Amino acid sequence: MLTKQRLRAVQNDSNVCADIEGFDFNAYDARDIEELRRFWLQYGVLRFKKTGISDAQQVEFSRHFGEFVIHPKQKQEGGHPTHQEILVISNAMKDGKPSGAMGNSEATWHTDTWFYERPPAGAILRGVTVPPSGGDTYFLSTYSAYETLPDALRKATDGRQIFFQNVYDKTGKLRLGKSEPGSRDFREWTGVVHPLVRAHGETGRKALYLGGTTEGAWIVGLPLDESAALLADLWDHTTGKQEVFVQKWDEGDIMMWDNRCTMHRRDGFDPSLIRIMHRTTTAGERPV
Ligand code: OGA
Ligand code: MN
Q1: Best of 137, 250, 279 to mutate for ligand 1, by most ligand atoms within 8 A of CB?
Q2: What is the pTM of this model?
Q3: What domains are defined for the chain?
Q4: pLDDT by residue (tens digit) across 153-197?
Q5: Which mutation among 113, 256, 279, 282 tests ligand 1's pocket best, with the greatest number of atoms within 8 A of CB?
Protein backbone atom coordinates (compact mmCIF):
# COMPACT_ATOMS: atom_id res chain seq x y z
CA MET A 1 0.00 0.00 0.00
CA LEU A 2 1.18 3.49 -0.77
CA THR A 3 1.73 5.60 2.28
CA LYS A 4 0.23 9.02 2.08
CA GLN A 5 2.59 11.89 1.31
CA ARG A 6 3.15 13.94 4.42
CA LEU A 7 1.77 17.42 4.53
CA ARG A 8 4.54 20.01 4.84
CA ALA A 9 4.86 23.76 5.13
CA VAL A 10 7.93 25.24 3.48
CA GLN A 11 8.61 28.78 4.56
CA ASN A 12 9.06 31.26 1.75
CA ASP A 13 11.64 34.02 1.73
CA SER A 14 9.59 36.17 4.08
CA ASN A 15 8.23 36.01 7.62
CA VAL A 16 4.63 35.75 6.50
CA CYS A 17 4.11 32.92 4.02
CA ALA A 18 4.69 29.20 3.60
CA ASP A 19 4.11 26.89 0.64
CA ILE A 20 2.02 23.85 1.46
CA GLU A 21 3.25 20.65 -0.09
CA GLY A 22 1.70 17.21 0.02
CA PHE A 23 -1.88 18.31 0.51
CA ASP A 24 -4.38 16.53 -1.72
CA PHE A 25 -7.61 18.45 -2.30
CA ASN A 26 -9.24 15.23 -3.49
CA ALA A 27 -8.40 13.20 -0.41
CA TYR A 28 -7.85 14.90 2.92
CA ASP A 29 -8.99 14.10 6.42
CA ALA A 30 -9.61 15.89 9.70
CA ARG A 31 -5.98 15.50 10.71
CA ASP A 32 -4.78 17.23 7.55
CA ILE A 33 -7.15 20.12 8.21
CA GLU A 34 -5.93 20.36 11.79
CA GLU A 35 -2.37 20.52 10.54
CA LEU A 36 -3.20 23.18 7.96
CA ARG A 37 -4.90 25.20 10.66
CA ARG A 38 -1.77 25.03 12.77
CA PHE A 39 0.41 26.17 9.86
CA TRP A 40 -2.04 28.95 9.01
CA LEU A 41 -1.81 30.26 12.58
CA GLN A 42 1.95 29.89 12.56
CA TYR A 43 2.74 31.60 9.23
CA GLY A 44 -0.18 33.94 8.55
CA VAL A 45 -0.41 33.08 4.85
CA LEU A 46 -0.39 29.67 3.18
CA ARG A 47 0.12 29.15 -0.53
CA PHE A 48 -1.04 26.12 -2.51
CA LYS A 49 0.44 26.06 -6.01
CA LYS A 50 -1.58 25.11 -9.12
CA THR A 51 -4.35 23.24 -7.28
CA GLY A 52 -6.62 22.70 -10.26
CA ILE A 53 -9.67 22.49 -8.01
CA SER A 54 -13.27 23.44 -8.83
CA ASP A 55 -15.49 26.07 -7.24
CA ALA A 56 -17.38 23.36 -5.37
CA GLN A 57 -14.12 21.98 -3.97
CA GLN A 58 -13.03 25.43 -2.87
CA VAL A 59 -16.32 25.94 -1.01
CA GLU A 60 -16.06 22.50 0.59
CA PHE A 61 -12.47 23.08 1.65
CA SER A 62 -13.27 26.53 3.09
CA ARG A 63 -16.09 25.11 5.19
CA HIS A 64 -13.48 23.53 7.47
CA PHE A 65 -12.12 26.90 8.53
CA GLY A 66 -15.21 28.57 9.96
CA GLU A 67 -18.52 30.07 9.01
CA PHE A 68 -18.77 31.82 5.67
CA VAL A 69 -19.00 35.57 5.54
CA ILE A 70 -20.78 37.21 2.66
CA HIS A 71 -18.67 40.16 1.50
CA PRO A 72 -20.73 43.30 0.65
CA LYS A 73 -19.44 43.11 -2.92
CA GLN A 74 -21.10 39.69 -3.25
CA LYS A 75 -24.43 41.51 -3.13
CA GLN A 76 -23.21 43.78 -5.90
CA GLU A 77 -21.04 43.02 -8.91
CA GLY A 78 -19.03 40.33 -7.08
CA GLY A 79 -21.75 37.69 -6.76
CA HIS A 80 -21.13 34.19 -8.16
CA PRO A 81 -23.91 32.76 -10.36
CA THR A 82 -24.19 29.41 -8.56
CA HIS A 83 -22.07 29.46 -5.40
CA GLN A 84 -23.31 32.14 -3.04
CA GLU A 85 -20.27 31.58 -0.79
CA ILE A 86 -17.90 32.84 -3.48
CA LEU A 87 -16.85 36.43 -4.09
CA VAL A 88 -15.83 36.98 -7.70
CA ILE A 89 -12.93 39.40 -8.20
CA SER A 90 -12.69 40.12 -11.89
CA ASN A 91 -12.23 42.81 -14.50
CA ALA A 92 -14.14 40.84 -17.17
CA MET A 93 -17.28 42.48 -18.51
CA LYS A 94 -20.53 40.67 -19.19
CA ASP A 95 -23.36 42.31 -21.14
CA GLY A 96 -21.60 45.65 -20.75
CA LYS A 97 -21.37 45.32 -16.95
CA PRO A 98 -18.58 44.21 -14.59
CA SER A 99 -18.78 40.50 -13.83
CA GLY A 100 -16.80 40.85 -10.62
CA ALA A 101 -15.41 43.22 -8.02
CA MET A 102 -12.26 45.41 -8.04
CA GLY A 103 -11.78 45.83 -11.79
CA ASN A 104 -8.13 46.09 -12.86
CA SER A 105 -7.10 48.77 -10.40
CA GLU A 106 -4.38 48.71 -7.81
CA ALA A 107 -5.53 47.87 -4.28
CA THR A 108 -3.34 49.58 -1.68
CA TRP A 109 -2.35 47.90 1.60
CA HIS A 110 -5.29 46.79 3.75
CA THR A 111 -6.82 44.13 5.91
CA ASP A 112 -10.19 42.99 4.66
CA THR A 113 -13.35 44.82 5.77
CA TRP A 114 -11.67 46.64 8.67
CA PHE A 115 -14.78 48.86 8.87
CA TYR A 116 -16.84 45.93 10.21
CA GLU A 117 -17.26 45.25 13.92
CA ARG A 118 -16.20 41.68 13.25
CA PRO A 119 -13.76 41.63 10.35
CA PRO A 120 -13.25 38.21 8.76
CA ALA A 121 -10.71 35.79 10.22
CA GLY A 122 -9.53 34.50 6.89
CA ALA A 123 -9.79 34.51 3.13
CA ILE A 124 -9.07 31.83 0.58
CA LEU A 125 -8.30 33.35 -2.80
CA ARG A 126 -7.92 31.21 -5.93
CA GLY A 127 -6.55 32.32 -9.27
CA VAL A 128 -9.04 31.19 -11.92
CA THR A 129 -7.78 33.15 -14.91
CA VAL A 130 -4.58 35.10 -14.43
CA PRO A 131 -2.70 37.46 -16.74
CA PRO A 132 0.89 36.59 -17.77
CA SER A 133 2.08 39.59 -15.76
CA GLY A 134 0.64 42.23 -13.45
CA GLY A 135 -1.89 41.79 -10.67
CA ASP A 136 0.68 40.43 -8.20
CA THR A 137 -0.52 40.22 -4.60
CA TYR A 138 1.72 41.23 -1.66
CA PHE A 139 1.53 40.21 1.98
CA LEU A 140 3.13 41.39 5.21
CA SER A 141 2.91 40.40 8.87
CA THR A 142 1.27 42.81 11.31
CA TYR A 143 2.70 40.76 14.21
CA SER A 144 6.08 41.73 12.92
CA ALA A 145 4.94 45.32 12.35
CA TYR A 146 4.03 45.51 16.03
CA GLU A 147 7.06 43.64 17.34
CA THR A 148 9.54 45.80 15.42
CA LEU A 149 8.06 49.16 16.41
CA PRO A 150 10.66 51.54 17.84
CA ASP A 151 10.06 52.04 21.58
CA ALA A 152 8.59 55.53 21.30
CA LEU A 153 6.11 54.45 18.64
CA ARG A 154 5.16 51.35 20.55
CA LYS A 155 4.49 53.44 23.65
CA ALA A 156 2.33 55.77 21.57
CA THR A 157 0.09 52.83 20.61
CA ASP A 158 -0.32 51.68 24.21
CA GLY A 159 -3.99 51.25 25.13
CA ARG A 160 -5.09 53.25 22.07
CA GLN A 161 -8.16 52.65 19.97
CA ILE A 162 -8.73 53.50 16.34
CA PHE A 163 -11.96 54.72 14.77
CA PHE A 164 -12.76 53.92 11.12
CA GLN A 165 -15.64 55.64 9.37
CA ASN A 166 -17.75 53.21 7.34
CA VAL A 167 -19.73 55.59 5.12
CA TYR A 168 -17.41 55.89 2.12
CA ASP A 169 -15.06 53.36 0.57
CA LYS A 170 -11.45 54.11 -0.41
CA THR A 171 -12.47 55.41 -3.81
CA GLY A 172 -14.95 57.88 -2.28
CA LYS A 173 -18.08 55.88 -3.18
CA LEU A 174 -20.87 55.50 -0.62
CA ARG A 175 -20.83 52.02 0.88
CA LEU A 176 -23.84 49.76 0.47
CA GLY A 177 -26.80 51.03 2.51
CA LYS A 178 -25.10 54.30 3.53
CA SER A 179 -26.27 57.86 2.83
CA GLU A 180 -24.47 61.22 2.72
CA PRO A 181 -23.49 62.23 6.26
CA GLY A 182 -24.72 65.56 7.67
CA SER A 183 -21.45 66.55 9.33
CA ARG A 184 -18.13 67.42 7.66
CA ASP A 185 -16.16 65.88 10.52
CA PHE A 186 -15.81 62.18 9.74
CA ARG A 187 -15.48 61.43 13.44
CA GLU A 188 -19.21 62.12 13.73
CA TRP A 189 -20.11 59.65 11.00
CA THR A 190 -21.01 56.04 11.59
CA GLY A 191 -18.06 53.71 11.96
CA VAL A 192 -16.34 51.20 14.20
CA VAL A 193 -13.79 51.44 16.98
CA HIS A 194 -11.08 48.78 17.22
CA PRO A 195 -7.99 48.44 19.39
CA LEU A 196 -4.93 49.82 17.56
CA VAL A 197 -3.02 46.80 18.82
CA ARG A 198 -5.11 43.66 18.78
CA ALA A 199 -4.44 40.34 20.44
CA HIS A 200 -5.10 37.55 17.97
CA GLY A 201 -8.09 35.52 19.16
CA GLU A 202 -6.33 32.17 18.73
CA THR A 203 -2.60 32.77 19.13
CA GLY A 204 -2.83 35.61 21.63
CA ARG A 205 0.04 37.38 19.83
CA LYS A 206 -0.23 41.13 19.44
CA ALA A 207 -0.62 42.65 15.99
CA LEU A 208 -0.85 46.24 14.81
CA TYR A 209 -4.29 47.01 13.40
CA LEU A 210 -4.29 49.80 10.83
CA GLY A 211 -7.29 48.80 8.72
CA GLY A 212 -7.14 49.92 5.14
CA THR A 213 -6.47 53.63 4.91
CA THR A 214 -5.40 56.62 6.98
CA GLU A 215 -8.24 58.67 5.54
CA GLY A 216 -11.28 58.49 7.76
CA ALA A 217 -9.23 56.84 10.50
CA TRP A 218 -8.69 58.52 13.86
CA ILE A 219 -6.79 57.51 16.96
CA VAL A 220 -9.51 58.08 19.49
CA GLY A 221 -8.85 60.93 21.92
CA LEU A 222 -5.92 62.52 20.06
CA PRO A 223 -6.18 65.91 18.35
CA LEU A 224 -6.64 65.25 14.61
CA ASP A 225 -3.19 66.46 13.60
CA GLU A 226 -1.45 64.32 16.22
CA SER A 227 -3.54 61.34 15.20
CA ALA A 228 -2.66 61.88 11.54
CA ALA A 229 1.07 62.18 12.35
CA LEU A 230 1.06 59.00 14.44
CA LEU A 231 -0.87 57.11 11.79
CA ALA A 232 1.56 58.26 9.10
CA ASP A 233 4.48 56.96 11.19
CA LEU A 234 2.76 53.64 11.86
CA TRP A 235 1.92 53.18 8.17
CA ASP A 236 5.47 54.05 7.12
CA HIS A 237 6.86 51.54 9.56
CA THR A 238 4.41 48.83 8.52
CA THR A 239 4.32 49.19 4.76
CA GLY A 240 7.85 50.52 4.30
CA LYS A 241 9.96 48.45 6.68
CA GLN A 242 8.43 44.98 6.82
CA GLU A 243 9.38 41.89 4.84
CA VAL A 244 6.91 41.37 2.04
CA PHE A 245 5.95 38.22 0.22
CA VAL A 246 5.01 38.68 -3.44
CA GLN A 247 2.64 36.22 -5.03
CA LYS A 248 2.95 35.96 -8.81
CA TRP A 249 -0.09 33.99 -9.82
CA ASP A 250 -0.40 30.79 -11.78
CA GLU A 251 -3.82 29.42 -12.54
CA GLY A 252 -5.13 27.31 -9.70
CA ASP A 253 -2.90 28.92 -7.06
CA ILE A 254 -4.55 29.53 -3.71
CA MET A 255 -3.49 32.09 -1.14
CA MET A 256 -5.06 31.53 2.26
CA TRP A 257 -4.45 34.38 4.67
CA ASP A 258 -5.19 35.12 8.28
CA ASN A 259 -6.83 38.52 8.17
CA ARG A 260 -6.10 39.17 11.85
CA CYS A 261 -2.31 39.32 11.58
CA THR A 262 -1.52 40.22 7.97
CA MET A 263 -2.12 42.96 5.43
CA HIS A 264 -2.13 42.66 1.65
CA ARG A 265 -2.18 44.74 -1.48
CA ARG A 266 -2.26 44.04 -5.18
CA ASP A 267 -0.83 45.67 -8.27
CA GLY A 268 -3.04 47.00 -10.99
CA PHE A 269 -2.77 45.37 -14.41
CA ASP A 270 -3.30 45.97 -18.10
CA PRO A 271 -7.07 46.35 -18.61
CA SER A 272 -6.92 44.46 -21.91
CA LEU A 273 -5.95 41.31 -19.95
CA ILE A 274 -8.45 39.23 -17.99
CA ARG A 275 -7.91 38.35 -14.34
CA ILE A 276 -10.55 36.32 -12.48
CA MET A 277 -10.22 35.23 -8.85
CA HIS A 278 -12.66 33.33 -6.67
CA ARG A 279 -12.59 34.01 -2.97
CA THR A 280 -14.24 32.49 0.08
CA THR A 281 -14.20 34.28 3.42
CA THR A 282 -14.56 33.01 6.98
CA ALA A 283 -15.92 34.77 10.03
CA GLY A 284 -13.70 36.32 12.69
CA GLU A 285 -14.03 37.56 16.24
CA ARG A 286 -14.40 41.13 17.35
CA PRO A 287 -10.86 42.52 17.72
CA VAL A 288 -9.71 42.94 21.35
C1 OGA B 1 -8.96 40.50 -1.65
C2 OGA B 1 -7.97 41.26 -2.37
C3 OGA B 1 -6.29 40.81 -3.98
C4 OGA B 1 -6.15 40.25 -5.35
O5 OGA B 1 -9.43 39.48 -2.19
O6 OGA B 1 -9.30 40.87 -0.52
O7 OGA B 1 -7.52 42.26 -1.87
O8 OGA B 1 -5.05 39.81 -5.65
N9 OGA B 1 -7.59 40.75 -3.54
O10 OGA B 1 -7.10 40.28 -6.13
MN1 MN C 1 -8.37 42.39 0.26
Answers
A1: 137
A2: 0.96
A3: 8-99+121-132+247-258+270-282 (3.60.130.10)
A4: 999 999 999 999 999 998 899 998 999 999 999 999 999 999 999
A5: 279
